[in-house]
Amino acid sequence: MMLPTSTYRLQFREGFTFDKAVAILPYLKTLGISHVYASPIFSAATGSTHGYDVTDHNEIDPAIGGREGFDRLSAALKQHGLGLILDIVPNHMAASLDNPWWRSVIELGPDSPYARHFDIDWRERLTLPILGKPYDEAVADGEIALKFENGKPVLAYFDNHLPLHPDTIEGITPETVGDLSGDRAFLEALHARQPYQLTFWKTARKHLSYRRFFEVTGLVGVRVEDPAIFDDVHRLILELVRSGQVDGLRVDHVDGLADPKTYLDQLRAAIGPDTYLVVEKILNGEEVLPQDWPIEGTTGYEFTAAIADLLSDGSKTAELDQAYADLLGAPVDLEEERRRAKQVMVKENFETELKGLVALAKKSIHPPLDDEAIRDAIAAIVIAFPVYRTYINKEGIRDDDRRLLEQVANDAKTSSQIAESAINAVLDCLFRAATSSNGAAEFTTRFQQLTGPVTAKSVEDTLFYRFNKLIALNEVGCDPAEPVGSVARFHDKMKARVSEQPHGLLGTSTHDTKRGEDARARLYAISEAPDVWAKAVARWRSMNADAVQQLDDGPAPETDTEWLLYQALAGIWTGEADPKTLASLKERFLPYVEKALREAKRRTDWSDTNEAYESAVLAYAERLFAEENQAFHSDFDATLKPIMAAGRINALSQTLIKLTAPGIPDIYQGAEGEDLSLVDPDNRRAIDFTKLSQALASNDQRPWPNAVADGTAKQRLIAAGLALRNARPDLFASGNYQPLEITGEKRDHAAAYLRSQGDDVVLAVVPRLPLGLYNQDGSQTPDWGDTAIVIPADLTDRRLINHLTSAETTIGETMRLADLLKDCPVALLATA
């Protein structure tokens, strides 16, 4: 296998096409990238902004250039010596009339050749939750009518023109549709004869006849566990791999599949051993990637968590906890908040899935239990789940999964009032999946497909917007309850990567991260100065107090939301307060605020919006950008200057680690510059590649402090680091990882390690907790005093070259940080 030495993620759509990708390939080659990593390129729903709502797995989307455009990109990639990794979406497709398979299912129901392609419960009519009100009201209001389209009658609901089963259209002609549309009894009878039933979208959580992606009813689960359906979904994908146009695949949401291990075995057999293969998989806590999966690793969310651990100040956690508690009036019980969020999610938002599990469990629980007991037991186990899922299949249950389920069951018993007998009965169903033929196997599959969505929606998309102490830690792959600030723990995680996934991706920004990597790097600095931050927030709240509105259900915004808003704004603040900059920031910030409020699900949410509350909070947010609010702008900017400077140092440390740690560095589009994005869609904005290319061409000879100050140092560091990786691919692909001891007065402010293979050695040195090291403007060299790295005896007297400054040094028993970092904040040394 020709491993990537680096990947560069490109987001197609919204104006970015294959031909535009061709135009930037010279820049990517100069930067040092080895492989382009493309978002989904297959045909997606009309107007798709991301491509994960696939409508045709076997057609390259004409909206981004079609097959001809892809072939031009493929030829250009080969011309520049670049590879291609494709993001594929086997778990779900768009439940859209644009999708010919889905359209066939709507028209023909169980008679469709694609009826079994989707995860549909055909014991009833297919539910289509597209109505904006209950069905009877929609009919009474004349919103449902008959029309003719392409020579056939359709049932029209606004822009949704639904096909009718051929056996039900007799007597419907272009001449009769007008009269029949006004005949309510006829319409209701016609609707009753269809293989589908139109339903109010808000009732989908209570009743839905198909598996969806998370809570998104517009994405329907696909049964790729069926070999024939696997073939249908992957036909073009495999053609592109076998033709040599595609060098690697990234599997989206692997935990949503019925049996990830079997799927990956089948995919690996189809693509061969030389195709690079990674999966989107979130590893929680101490969870380890299953080592029998035939893949190179994950997309790297766990690496983001390791960086957060290293760059946050754990010594001041208690101080930050107290500041946040003082703001709220009481400490936050984070685990109780997590439990509540999961309880709401599993019992309300995923009510239809829970009902389905109860029905399946009843078939194999003996002696029988009533529905309520089974329901409460399943819910208690799901709520207690600490990871996304287990991987029980027809081959049996792994020891790790057995231990996990037993622990989860014990936790469920102690944290709830549910009878032990009911929990034990559900656990027994899960354990019997591999051998049972009476429903336990399907129950276990559906159970395992539920725990992940519940965790994602309750933690990442609820708790992360409710617990705002330090939002840099509220990131995909992270857990704000985990301790931070341990250099030793970081080194342990990196050493583990050498054996567990040495070729997995090292991601710090993706299309799904809650904020850009440089925004997080900046916000980590708040952990170093909780008192400064708390006092600042108190000042800003006072300055903007007259913008808080008193509503019947409380103040808007509440204090916790104010704390969130100031942190989120700190992450994107540019240091400029001119009208144009403020207007641009506001345009990006207000949609984020709306999303944050709805994801928190406290006083408003996506399905039941509280317009008065949202309007009040958005008005407060707008006030932050008002030209007349100059006193706030001045105070905010002055407070942020040292935090922004510290953030740039953190960003360089984060980047150098990504370039040298075990794994393959993944650069998200534009993140080689300063990535101060908010959550999607802000992180999918168009990238100015001309500006980036010009910066790369002009930045080589400038002093590092100047590049650090203006935010261009990271791109320069990436180019230097990738050049070294490209020159020594074997060392980075299979070399050892060795932590180095640091001594002296500032030892807690740095981390260092070696990557080595034989006599070939790379030494990486990064600062951490920079707020206490640098002056406010970040331009001064820190006083490292006697701080030094202890060098292993077998490396002394070796000559190393600093690939960032070109300085040469001979290694002694120790290396002083004052010498190593005098010209550049980070150091990247390698044997000559």
UniProtKB/TrEMBL annotation:
Residues 5-728 form the Glycosyl hydrolase family 13 catalytic domain. InterPro entries: GH (IPR017853), GH13_cat_dom (IPR006047), Maltooligo_trehalose_synth_4 (IPR013797), Trehalose_TreY (IPR012767). It comes from the Bacteria. PANTHER family: ALPHA-AMYLASE FAMILY MEMBER, MALTOOLIGOSYL TREHALOSE SYNTHASE-RELATED. This is Malto-oligosyltrehalose synthase.
